[in-house]
Design brief:
single chain; alpha+beta; Nuclear Transport Factor 2, Chain: A; six-stranded mixed β-sheet; 6 strands
Length: 158
């Protein structure tokens, strides 16, 4: 009898641990928005990137106010995406917290940009950070505020 109780206890404990480790639907949705936006940037697809932002979103970059995402895409991001050959994220660290219908996210990463005329323009390598506030409306998560900045990678300490 004791052996049976121990087996039941261990099985229940294992199932509870597995259930606790499973992300919620909202966590999966928030991660999908953040990941989808990065993938759209890597694909240099501004239209796809815009799907992850609410129309009245606000974008801030490198100390500047870019306006809503449509304005940012038309006057800043879009032209840049057309000038480059590749944009690759690496070393991504993402953290977020959900509070009701809002989620607050931070991302730390490196990125590399190459140009079609590689001989004419050197590749760009940067260490970047981004913070996002996402909002759920009608069951759908999108970014409502996005802020990013970057700098040249620092050389390793001796």
């Amino acid at each position: 009898m004791l052996k049976k109780l121990v087996i039941i206890f261990v099985a229940a404990w294992a199932m509870a641990g597995a259930a606790a480790a499973q992300p919620s639907a909202d966590e999966l949705a928030v991660e999908a928005v953040l990941s989808g936006y990065r993938q759209a940037i890597e694909a240099r697809d501004g239209e796809a990137a815009s799907r992850y932002f609410w129309p009245e979103s606000q974008v801030f970059e490198q100390g500047g106010v870019e306006g809503d995402f449509a304005t940012y895409l038309a006057h800043h991001l879009g032209p840049e995406l057309h000038e480059i050959a590749s944009f690759d994220f690496d070393g991504l660290e993402t953290d977020f917290e959900i509070a009701g219908d809002f989620a607050y996210a931070s991302e730390v990463y490196t990125y590399a940009i190459t140009f079609p005329e590689a001989a004419a323009r050197a590749p760009i390598a940067r260490r970047g950070v981004a913070t996002s506030m996402l909002q759920r409306r009608g069951g759908e998560w999108r970014i409502v505020v996005y802020h990013s900045s970057s700098r040249a990678p620092r050389p390793p300490a001796n």
